[in-house]
Protein backbone atom coordinates (compact mmCIF):
# COMPACT_ATOMS: atom_id res chain seq x y z
CA UNK A 1 0.00 0.00 0.00
CA UNK A 2 1.32 3.41 -0.99
CA UNK A 3 1.64 6.44 1.22
CA UNK A 4 1.05 9.89 -0.23
CA UNK A 5 4.81 10.45 -0.22
CA UNK A 6 5.34 7.21 -2.21
CA UNK A 7 2.67 8.34 -4.68
CA UNK A 8 4.34 11.75 -4.96
CA UNK A 9 7.64 10.04 -5.84
CA UNK A 10 5.92 8.00 -8.58
CA UNK A 11 4.39 11.12 -10.10
CA UNK A 12 7.65 13.07 -9.89
CA UNK A 13 9.47 10.21 -11.66
CA UNK A 14 6.84 10.28 -14.43
CA UNK A 15 7.17 14.05 -14.76
CA UNK A 16 10.95 13.76 -14.80
CA UNK A 17 10.64 11.45 -17.81
CA UNK A 18 8.99 14.29 -19.75
CA UNK A 19 11.76 16.83 -19.19
CA UNK A 20 13.38 16.07 -22.55
CA UNK A 21 10.16 17.01 -24.36
CA UNK A 22 9.24 20.11 -22.35
CA UNK A 23 11.58 23.06 -21.88
CA UNK A 24 10.00 24.30 -18.62
CA UNK A 25 10.62 23.23 -15.05
CA UNK A 26 7.77 20.91 -14.12
CA UNK A 27 6.28 20.46 -10.68
CA UNK A 28 3.32 19.11 -8.78
CA UNK A 29 0.91 22.01 -8.33
CA UNK A 30 -1.81 20.48 -6.15
CA UNK A 31 -2.77 17.16 -4.57
CA UNK A 32 -6.27 16.07 -3.62
CA UNK A 33 -7.10 13.02 -1.52
CA UNK A 34 -9.61 10.58 -3.00
CA UNK A 35 -11.29 7.52 -1.46
CA UNK A 36 -8.89 5.22 -3.34
CA UNK A 37 -5.76 7.40 -3.39
CA UNK A 38 -4.85 10.82 -4.74
CA UNK A 39 -5.02 13.04 -7.78
CA UNK A 40 -1.90 15.02 -8.61
CA UNK A 41 -2.19 18.13 -10.74
CA UNK A 42 1.06 19.19 -12.36
CA UNK A 43 2.41 21.83 -14.70
CA UNK A 44 5.17 24.29 -15.39
CA UNK A 45 6.72 26.27 -12.56
CA UNK A 46 6.17 30.02 -12.49
CA UNK A 47 8.98 31.83 -14.22
CA UNK A 48 10.54 35.25 -14.58
CA UNK A 49 9.55 38.48 -12.92
CA UNK A 50 5.95 38.18 -14.09
CA UNK A 51 5.69 34.92 -12.12
CA UNK A 52 3.24 33.66 -14.72
CA UNK A 53 2.89 29.95 -15.22
CA UNK A 54 3.45 28.81 -18.83
CA UNK A 55 0.49 26.88 -20.19
CA UNK A 56 1.11 23.31 -21.26
CA UNK A 57 -0.97 21.10 -23.50
CA UNK A 58 -1.62 17.53 -22.47
CA UNK A 59 -0.79 17.86 -18.80
CA UNK A 60 -3.75 15.97 -17.43
CA UNK A 61 -3.48 15.08 -13.76
CA UNK A 62 -2.32 11.70 -12.48
CA UNK A 63 -4.54 9.37 -10.48
CA UNK A 64 -2.63 7.19 -8.04
CA UNK A 65 -4.31 4.20 -6.42
CA UNK A 66 -2.89 3.48 -2.98
CA UNK A 67 -4.00 -0.18 -2.88
CA UNK A 68 -2.76 -1.49 -6.22
CA UNK A 69 -0.11 1.20 -6.83
CA UNK A 70 -1.52 2.18 -10.21
CA UNK A 71 -0.42 5.46 -11.75
CA UNK A 72 -2.94 6.63 -14.33
CA UNK A 73 -2.43 9.65 -16.52
CA UNK A 74 -5.78 11.26 -17.23
CA UNK A 75 -6.88 12.95 -20.43
CA UNK A 76 -7.22 16.71 -20.68
CA UNK A 77 -10.22 16.36 -22.99
CA UNK A 78 -12.47 14.69 -20.39
CA UNK A 79 -13.57 16.35 -17.13
CA UNK A 80 -11.50 15.14 -14.20
CA UNK A 81 -14.60 14.33 -12.11
CA UNK A 82 -15.83 11.99 -14.85
CA UNK A 83 -12.47 10.22 -15.05
CA UNK A 84 -12.45 9.74 -11.27
CA UNK A 85 -15.99 8.32 -11.40
CA UNK A 86 -14.99 6.00 -14.28
CA UNK A 87 -12.00 4.73 -12.28
CA UNK A 88 -14.16 4.14 -9.20
CA UNK A 89 -16.56 2.09 -11.36
CA UNK A 90 -13.58 0.11 -12.64
CA UNK A 91 -12.51 -0.63 -9.05
CA UNK A 92 -16.02 -1.84 -8.18
CA UNK A 93 -16.09 -4.13 -11.25
CA UNK A 94 -12.66 -5.54 -10.33
CA UNK A 95 -13.78 -6.16 -6.73
CA UNK A 96 -16.93 -7.89 -7.96
CA UNK A 97 -14.89 -10.11 -10.31
CA UNK A 98 -12.50 -11.04 -7.47
CA UNK A 99 -15.42 -11.92 -5.19
CA UNK A 100 -17.08 -14.02 -7.88
CA UNK A 101 -13.80 -15.86 -8.56
CA UNK A 102 -13.31 -16.49 -4.83
CA UNK A 103 -16.84 -17.89 -4.49
CA UNK A 104 -16.29 -20.08 -7.53
CA UNK A 105 -12.97 -21.35 -6.14
CA UNK A 106 -14.59 -22.05 -2.77
CA UNK A 107 -17.34 -24.01 -4.52
CA UNK A 108 -14.74 -26.05 -6.46
CA UNK A 109 -12.80 -26.84 -3.27
CA UNK A 110 -15.94 -27.83 -1.33
CA UNK A 111 -18.60 -29.40 -3.60
CA UNK A 112 -21.14 -29.32 -0.72
CA UNK A 113 -20.81 -25.53 -0.51
Describe the structure.
The protein is α+β, with helices and mostly antiparallel strands and 113 residues long. It has one domain. Helices cover 38% and strands 20% of the residues. The protein has two helices and four strands, in the order αββββα. Strands 1-2-3-4 form a four-stranded antiparallel sheet, with helices on one face. β1 (26-33) and β2 form a beta hairpin.
Outline of the structure:
The chain has 113 residues and is α+β, with helices and mostly antiparallel strands. It has helices at 4-16, 80-109; strands spanning 26-33, 37-44, 62-65, 71-73.
Spans where pLDDT lies below 50 across 5 or more residues = none
Overall SS class: alpha+beta
The sequence of SSEs as H and E is: HEEEEH
Overall pLDDT confidence:
87
The percent range for strand residues is: 15-25%
Number of strands: 4
Give the overall shape: elongated
Rg, alpha carbons: 19 Å
Question: Which percent bin holds the helix content?
Answer: 25-40%
Labels describing this entry:
four-stranded antiparallel sheet; elongated; 113 residues; 4 strands
Amino acid sequence: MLTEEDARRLVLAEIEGMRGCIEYDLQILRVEALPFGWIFYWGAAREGRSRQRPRLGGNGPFLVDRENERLIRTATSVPVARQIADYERRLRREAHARNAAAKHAAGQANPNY
